[in-house]
Amino acid sequence: MTPASLPNWLDPEQWLPNTESTDKNAIRSAILSENPTERELALMLSPAAGEFLELMAQRAQAITRRHFGRTISLYTPLYLSNFCNGGCLYCGIAGDRRAKRAVLDETQLRHEMQAIQKMHFEELVLLTGERMPEADVPYLRDSIAVAAEYIHNVNIEVFPMAESEYRTLAEAGCTGMTVYQETYDQTVYEKMHRWGDKRDFFSRLNAPDRALRGGLRTVGIGALLGLADPKFDMLCVYRHAKYLQKNYWQAGVSVSFPRIRPQLGGFAADHPVDEKMLAQFIFALRICLPEIPLVLSTREAPRVRDGMAGLGISKMSIASKTTVGGYSGDSEESTEQFSISDERNIPEFCNMLCAKGLEPVFKNWDSTYRDPAHYEKP
Ligand code: SF4
């Protein structure tokens, strides 16, 4: 398969030549455009646009302030299980790694939730590997129900599933899901995913549709930067986000910018994305997707996160643990999926935001407006 066999709504081929443009006048006009489209995005992704990084930063910051104020929404991830038989080359807990495996039982999950609740988070992402007997839909359903006793917004970053399964999770209290396509380049996708369910490119691609039809309200998408040509992947992420906005207008769509991180297995990126390129991509997406939350996790180093906060990025994770039982220490030692770079605690991180004139936001007002009864916690 080649990228050319992507569905029409996703295929960015028409605009790929613009990502190699050296026309500085066209690039400057794209950055300043009042109604930027895919044409302008492709120009802003070009290496030549790197010269205009300051101008892009100014535009991105102004747009971010207009739509999100001076706030940064905060959330934290919680690994339920690191059991996985997937064959992803870039992952520290792939099936062929000598990883220490663990899965939280209900008591351990409650300890984790109590630890997270003390940190005042109101948004959480529950993570697992691929579908496994240790962590299948019934386990997820029960874990979501427990987590929802402690926190308003319970999201998942797990394996693609059927619409009916998403509905089961929505009924248990799940509000949203994230699924990174990893790469939209099908040739690279096939190489990176050596075996397992994840080899099904289109099942993954269509998972956000099934989740929204199943009753979840938000979806997060993204590409794992470094696997394939990042300019191609960024154009596809843009197209995917626009498609979801158009077809599910009531849904919330967010975009993340994960980069390959060191992990057990030692995979190195074929298409490394340096910090300057990452900044350029974030600014370009912000200019072209003004109202969509853009997310940056603790995969990135403090200097990168500090620099991007409010300059396009509107949502960040903090105090993240990428091991199972990492918050309460209430589980046997387990292997992390990847190393995090920003290990600051909440006060340190919030102090940094305040020093930049930004307000950390733990509260997710959306759940209050959606269902006041849900806000009355026991
Ligand atoms: S990326 Fe996900 S599916 Fe792939 S090996 Fe890692 S945990 Fe499993």
UniProtKB/TrEMBL annotation:
Region (Disordered): 1-21
UniProt protein name: 2-iminoacetate synthase
UniProt-listed PANTHER family: 2-IMINOACETATE SYNTHASE
Keywords: 4Fe-4S, Iron, Iron-sulfur, Metal-binding, S-adenosyl-L-methionine
Cofactor(s), by name: [4Fe-4S] cluster
Keyword S-adenosyl-L-methionine attached: yes
Any single biological process term in GO: thiamine biosynthetic process
MF term (GO), any: iron ion binding
InterPro entries named among the record's database cross-references: Aldolase_TIM (IPR013785), BATS_dom (IPR010722), rSAM (IPR007197), rSAM_sf (IPR058240), ThiH (IPR012726), ThiH/NoCL/HydG-like (IPR034428)
SMART domains the UniProt entry points to: BATS
Domain Radical SAM core residues, every copy: 70-311
